[in-house]
Amino acid sequence: MLRQFVFAGFGGQGVLTAGMILANMGSLYGKEVIWMPSYGSEMRGGTANCSVKLSDEPIASPFVKQIDYLVAMNKPSLDKFLPQMKEGGTVIVDSSIVTELPQADKFRVVQVPADAICEKLKNTRSANVCVLGALAACCELFTKEQYENGIREYFSSKPQFHEGNIKVFEAGYAHVKEG
Amino acid sequence: MAAVKKAPSTIYGYNSFCPGCGHGIVIRLIAEVVEEMGLAEDAIGVLAVGCSCLTNRYLALDLLQAAHGRAAASAGAIKRCRPDKLVFTYQGDGDAASIGIAETLYSAQRNENFTQIIVNNGVYGMTGGQMSPTSLVGQKTTTSVKGRDPEIMGMPLKISELISHFDVSYLARGSVHDAAHIRKTKTYIRKAFETQMNQGGYTCVEIISPCPTNWHLTPLQAVDRIEKEVLEYYPVGEIKGGAR
Amino acid sequence: MKRLMKGNNALAEAAILAGCRFFAGYPITPQTEILEYLAKNLPERGGHFIQTESELAGVNMVLGAAATGYRAMTSSAGPGFSLKQEGISYMCSMELPAVIVDVMRYGIGLGSIMLGQGDYFQAVKGGGHGGYKVPVYAPASVQENVDFTIRAFDTAEAYRTPVLILSDGAIGQMAESVELPEGREHDPDQYDWTLKGRDAAHPTGRKMTDRIYYDFKFHEYDPHIRERYAKMEKELQMWEEVETEDAKIILVSYGISSRVCREAVKTARKKGWKVGMIRPITLWPFPKKAFAKTNSHAEAYLTVEMNACGQMVEDVALYGRGVPIYSYPSGRSIADPEAILQKIESIMNGEEKEVF
């Protein structure tokens, strides 16, 4: 079953990394996987996005056409990718930044105040890990343990951040599950 | 009775340079130094495009003929891959100071460990005497028919002086227009090669050389011109590393 | 074990695994990761990395390294690849093995840094002077970036020729799972022809120069060149066939566009349309053997490529003689599976115009 993801936001919010963590997890757990960044000569701080395709079978086109899961960390990203949402898909928005939410008749909208959560946990540069927590609560392609493992694996060269990362991830996950 | 000096065995066959051309002298100096240093089996030369590539036919060393202007780039790579060999380029001024000026200056800037030998005769010889970067002010060539006009064509380029801005290991300018200068130039080549093999780093010898054919002079007049005009603008001597 | 790697990084790693110990290059998007990866990793693994002042210096350093028997590589994109042509022509003439990578971007001149497939002619028809030919591999995945880079070094050495890898911005930037092979050590001294200082077998030294000068009599040179390229043409053709046996409409596409076409073939087959694909893997030699198999039953060839006017379609017309030829150059846009299906439908309905 093919699943198509887009992670989008400002440059510096770590959306490319969030996508890469998911892609890496896919590779780790035997999925066929493609991660594709938008790249450009835009200034740092401009918009950034990447797409991830996960499947049990070889993936033909690397380009995402219909999005199953959109993680939007700012308003321009949300506006840009909403038209590509698949019916029944899920939009995860960082509600600390995006206050205006889309009409949700054809797909599910999940809010997670990622920035606020990170601030509360005094781990302000981890909003991308927080939204992964939210994604883990919606997308059960992997178990929660697999997600956590995937995050650990990705940051294996920086073990000092593991605890902080997992806390933020858990908080994002809990917010969606309990909220 | 004058002593007869045998040609080094590293030179074979007959060269095809014009009468009075300085290339044959420079090649011979290189061959003598290579043999005196016992490096004939351990030398790799990189030839440029132009008259200098005729050297292929009579210098008995492993030789690469590089693309026009790129000898320094190719030589730098060869030395990196064969660090125990003596590696030198043999280029004209058009090759090293015009089309290949970037390769020349960046070899100096990176202090690439090879020796660049630049024969400066102030014209493009092989293509029939066009203005080169080192043609003197007023010099008539097929592309500066009324003489080099600095207003339009700029001043003649001093490649050694440009190279001297970098932290290179050895740099000198010699000439082959008379016996005394030939002997001196040979010591420059030797010092450059020895520096390369011992201390390492970029070394370069620019050599003023006559081109009677394209200067439209007799060989003797060409020698005279070097002494009276060329050396005034391009003074000979060691520029870097000579004191060592 | 498989691991996730970006295409450019995987290509660079594959070069090291193939025994490449010399790289000289210049930054240009979207190939810069190759440069960066090798800057970090090549010196650690016993190789030489040089960031050169220009692509000209880069390719001519590679020429020098190749002359000593080293496995050497340079990489670039679009405008920088144009500057590499001088060195490629010289290496062809000197018959020196090396690998040159073009991670294609889009457009003419400076163009855009986004993915594109505009350098087909330049790579395949001789981008430099003199009428040479070079084997060109076109990877369509990160795994193929690995496999064809290694193959490119082997081909280069077996035929003593520069070999091109025509990748593109998407394959270079995207990440997929790859299986890396065991690394190999390459012995630069194994061949007699490499520059290493004269010896008894070469008492006047080796003359590494355009072979036209010393190695052939006047009338022997052209037959040598013809024979050389005929041999490569016969032995090196590679392609992939996707459901071509009974196909009436056959897509022809390489590199990143072929990934999209593969999806279009899947969808078309679900609709019951007899659609297949020939994916050239070597762009030169062009896989004419593939077309010899399908010319008898194909009713149309539809070439899909990411440039403005169509380039490969001319070779498809040459080798698909007798079969109607259609072209879908998707330009700056990534070819879209839906649009390809529409083209197919319009061909089936006789509404599409042949291009030749």
List keywords for this structure.
heterotrimer; A: 179 residues; alpha/beta; Pyruvate-ferredoxin Oxidoreductase, domain 3; six-stranded mixed sheet; 6 helices; B: 244 residues; Rossmann fold; seven-stranded mixed sheet; two-stranded antiparallel sheet; 9 helices; 36% helix; 17% strand; globular
Explained architecture:
Chain A is of the alpha/beta class and 179 residues long. Chain A has a single domain, classed as Pyruvate-ferredoxin oxidoreductase, PFOR, domain III (Pyruvate-ferredoxin Oxidoreductase, domain 3, 3-Layer(aba) Sandwich), CATH 3.40.920.10. Chain A has helices at residues 15-28, 75-81, 114-120, 127-138, 144-154, 162-178; strands at residues 3-10, 32-37, 47-55, 67-72, 85-94, 108-112. In chain A, strands 2-3-1-4-5-6 form a six-stranded mixed β-sheet, sandwiched between helices. In chain A, strand 4 (67-72), helix 2 and strand 5 form a beta-alpha-beta unit. Chain A starts with a strand and ends with a helix. The mean pLDDT of chain A is 92. With 244 residues, chain B is of the alpha/beta class. Chain B has a single domain (23-240), classed as Rossmann fold (3-Layer(aba) Sandwich), CATH 3.40.50.970. Chain B is built from nine helices and nine strands. Chain B has helices at residues 23-36, 71-81, 93-99, 101-109, 150-153, 159-163, 179-198, 212-215, 219-233; strands at residues 43-47, 62-65, 86-92, 115-120, 123-124, 130-131, 170-175, 203-208, 237-240. In chain B, helix 7 links the parallel strand 7 and strand 8. By secondary structure, chain C is of the alpha/beta class. Chain C has two domains: 2-189, Thiamin diphosphate (ThDP)-binding fold, Pyr/PP domains (Rossmann fold); 240-348, 3-Layer(aba) Sandwich (Rossmann fold). Chain C contains 13 helices and 16 strands. In chain C, helix 6 links the parallel strand 7 (136-137) and strand 8. Classes of the chains: A alpha/beta (179), B alpha/beta (244), C alpha/beta (356). Chains in contact: A-C, B-C. Chains B and C meet through strand 1, strand 2, helix 2 and helix 4 of B and helix 3, helix 4 and strand 10 of C.
